[in-house]
Amino acid sequence: MTLVLAVVFPLSCAFLIPLLHLYGGALLRKFLPVMGLGTLALTLAAALSGFNDYALSFFGGWPARLGVVFVVDSLSSIFLILVAFGSGISLLYSYDRMGTGPWRFYVIFFLLQASMNGVLLTGDLFNMFVFYEIFSLTAYLLVSYSLTWQAVEAGLKYLVMGTVGAFFILLGAAYAFIANKTLNMAALAVSLPQIPKATLVVIAACMVVGLSLKAGAFPFHFWLPDAHSSALTAVSALLSGVVIKVSVYALIRISLLFFGDPLPTVFDVITALGVISLLGGHLMAFKQQDIKRLLAYSTVAQIGYIMIGAGMGTAMGIGAALFHSVNHMLMKSGLFMTAGHLAEEMKTRNISHMRGLFAHRKGLVLAFTVLAAAIVGVPPLNGFMSKWYLVMASVEKGNLLAALSLVFGTVISASYYLRVLHAFYAPGDGPKKYKDPRCPLAVAVVLSGCCVVLGLLPFFYPIGDIFAEVGAKALDVKNYVAAVLLQ
Amino acid sequence: MRLRDRLHDLVLLCLCLGMGWWLWEGVAAIDDPEYIIGPAAYYLVNTAKETGAVNVVAAILFDYRGIDTLGEATVIYTTVCGVAMLFSKSKYKKSSAGLSFIARRGISFVVPFLFMYGSAIILMGHLSPGGGFQGGAVFATITILFCIVFGSSFEASRISPKTKETIESLGGLLFVFIGGVGLLAGAGFLANTAAGFPRGQVGNFLSAGTIPLLNVAVGMKVGAGLSTIFYSMVKVLDLEFNEQLTEVMDNDKN
Amino acid sequence: MIKISYATAIFVFCVGLYTILSKRNLFKTVIGLTIMEAGALMLIVTAGYVHGGVPPLIPIEGQAVNPLPHAFTLTAIVIGASDVALALALVIKVHRRYGTVDLDKIRGLKE
C-alpha cells in the first residue's frame, strides 16, 4: 500500500494546493510542511519495503499480465532514497527562499515528486512512458519558472530535445508491442529473446538514443548547460542531482531487463557513450567562465562516469555506478546551492568577478571547498571511493580505455575546480548585497558532512559490498520475472 | 550560404531516410499472426462479465489500466498549470470585438446542442466510442467558440478563470477519491467491481461501476484545462506588437 | 496491406525528425514534433489490425481488432498534444521578445 501512496499522495497534494490557495490563503502555509514531510516519509517507506525482497502492488487487483504492477527491488529502493533526500533538501531550500507565495511552484514540485516515484516504481513499459512524460513536463516548467528570457529560451530548447527523446522511447515501445503484443516489463523480459535480431536491434537503439537524450549523454547534451544554468538555484540542484538520476535508472533497468542476455553489445555502446560524455564534459567545463555552466558541464561528465559503470554489466560495475549516483547527488546539490547563493549575492556568475568571498562568507566557501574536493576525488572523501570502485570494475572487466579516461578526467576536473577556488580565495571586495545565509549554510554543511561520512565509511563498513550486492540482484532477471509474473 | 544550407539539408534528409530504411527492416522481420495473442485476447472475452462495459477500449482505459489514465489527466493538469504560469503576468488591455450579429445569433442556436453532444459523449463512454477526454474537448470547444464569437472579456465574465481552476482541481480529486475507495476496500487502487461498485446489466446506461464516474471526472478536468490554455494564450494576442513591446519594457523595469 | 501502413508510418516519423532538425522557423519545429508523434502512433495502431476485423464493441460479430493499441494511442495523443501546447506557449513568449521566430536571429538557441 505504501507503493501506491508514494505516487498518489503527492499527486493529491498537487491537486489540493490550488483549492487551498483560492479558498483559504493561510492554510497553505500550514499544510505545505505536512505535505512535504508526508511525501518524504512515504517515499522512504516504499524504498525500505523493497530493499531486501521484492515488494509488489497490483492496481485494481488485476494480475501483472492484465494490468499495471508496481515493483520495488533493491535497485529502485536506492534511487527512491536518493530522490527522497534530494527533493527534501530542495523543498527546504526553496521554502526558505520563496515562502508560500508562488503556489504554482509547489504544484509543479509535487507533480515532479509523484511522477519520479512513478517512474522508479512501475513495472510496465507504457506506464513508465506516461510518468516519464509528466516528470519531463514538470522539469521543463521548473526551468522556465523564473521567466527570465534566458530561462524561457533554455526551457524551449530542453522541451524540443526532450520531446524528441520521448518519441524515440515511444517508438521503441511500439516496436516492442509489435513484436510481443504486451508491454509488461517482466513479460517482455521473457519474450524478447525470441524475436528476430533486426527488430531487437531497433528496439535497443531507439531506447538507448531516447534515454541518453533525456539523461544528457555527450552527443545529445546540448540542452543541459543552458537548462541547468538558467534555472533558479534550488531548481538547478534538483535537476542536476535528482532528475537526471531517474533517466539513468530507466536506462539501467531497461538495458538489464531486456538486453542483458540477447544483445550484450548494448552495454558496450553505453560504455562508449559514457567515455565520450566524460571527456567532452570535462573539456567543455575547462573553458567556461560562468560558474553555473561550469557545474552543468561537470554534471555531463559525471553522468559519463555513471554510464561507464552501468555499461560494465557486472555486479561490481553497477554497484559502483549506484554509489556514484548517490554521491553525485550529494555533491552536486551542495555545489549548486552554495555557488548559486554566492552568485546571487555577488550579482554576477562570472568566475573571475567572484573574488574575495572567503573573507566574508567563510562557512559557505569552506563547504564549497569540501564539496569540490569530493567531486574531484581527493582521498578520504566519497568521490574518491566511488571513482575507485569504478576504476576497479572497469579493470576487472578488461576495459582499460575506460579506466584511463576516468583517471584523465579526474586530472582535468581538478584543474578547473582549482581555478574556481583560486577566484574565491583571492582578495577582493565581498558581496555587494547581503542575503541571509543561514539556510544555504546549514544545507551546505549537512551535505559536506554526508560527503565526509560516506567517504570514511568504507573503512569501517563494507559499503562497496552492499552496492555490489544490489548490482547482483539487479542483474538477476529470472528472480524479477518470477516475482512479478507468478503472483 | 544558400548552397551550404541546401547541402546540409540534403545530408540530413539522406540520414533520416536511411534511418527509415533501417526501421523498416526491423518491422518487416515480423509476420502478422492470424489471431490476437496476449492480454488483448483476455480483454475481448472477459470484459462484459468482469466490468459490465460495452466499449472494450473504455474498460481498458478506466478499469484494467486506470493508472495510465490518471497519468494522462495529470499531464494535462501540468500543462495547464505551466501555461497559466507563463502568461500569468500579462493582462489584456482591450478585448477583441468578436464577430458579426449573424454569427452571434447562429452560435446561440448551436450551443445548447453542443452541450448535449458533449454530455452524451462523456456519459455514454462505456456504451459507445467516446469518453471523458473526447467529451471534455467538446466542452472546451464551447468556451473557445464564445471567445471567438463574443470576445474574450465576455467569456471571462461568464466563466471566470478561478471557476475553471476549481473545476479542474475538483475533477482530479474526484478521480483520486474514487481510486481511494478501492484502496480502502482492500482491492487495490482504482478497483472496479472488486471494490463493490455495482456492475449492472451490460448495455444499460447505469452500468460498469466506476467507469461513468471516472469519465465525468476526466471530462471536468480536460474541459476546464483546455479552456484555460486557450484563454491564457488568447489574452496575450489581443495586443498589437508595439503595445506588447512597451509592455515587455515595463515588465523588465519592474 | 499492413506492410504499406507500416511503411507510411515510418516515412511520416522520418519526415517529422527531418523537419525538427533542419527548419529555421520555430513554428515549423513544433509542427515537426506533431508529425513525429503522428508517425509513432500510426505504427502502434497498425500493430493491432487483424484482417477483416470489427471495432471492439460488445457484442462482437466475428474477429475484433486488438483494443490495446487504441488505449495506448488515446493516452499518447493527449501527452503529445500537451507537449505541443507547452512548446507553443514558449514560442509565443520568445516571439514577444524578439519579434521574430527565425532561429538565425535568435541568439540564445543557436548552438
Automatic annotation (TrEMBL), chain A:
On whether Cell membrane is a keyword of this UniProt record, the answer is: yes
Asked if Nucleus is a keyword of the record, the answer is: no
Cite the Pfam families for this sequence: Proton_antipo_M
Compartment(s): Cell membrane; Membrane
Annotated ranges, domain NADH:quinone oxidoreductase/Mrp antiporter transmembrane: 123-413
**In what way does this protein cross or attach to the membrane?**
Multi-pass membrane protein
Instruction: Please indicate which superkingdom the organism of origin belongs to.
Output: Bacteria
User: Would you tell me the protein name for this molecule?
Assistant: NADH/Ubiquinone/plastoquinone (Complex I)
Automatic annotation (TrEMBL), chain C:
Membrane topology, record value: Multi-pass membrane protein
Grouped into one coarse class, the protein's main location is membrane
Stretches that traverse the bilayer? 6-22, 29-51, 71-92
Alphabetically ordered keywords of this record: Cell membrane, Membrane, Transmembrane, Transmembrane helix, Ubiquinone
| Record has Membrane as a keyword | yes
One cellular component GO annotation, for this chain's record?
plasma membrane
Q: State where the protein is found.
A: Cell membrane
Q: Which InterPro entries has this protein been placed in? A: CPA3_antiporter_subunitC, NUOK/Mnh_C1-like
UniProt key word Transmembrane: yes
Q: Which family does it belong to?
A: Belongs to the CPA3 antiporters (TC 2.A.63) subunit C family.
The record's PANTHER family line, in alphabetical order, gives: ANTIPORTER SUBUNIT MNHC2-RELATED
> What is the name of the protein in this document?
NADH-ubiquinone oxidoreductase chain 4L
Can you name the source organism?
Answer: Thermovirga lienii (strain ATCC BAA-1197 / DSM 17291 / Cas60314)
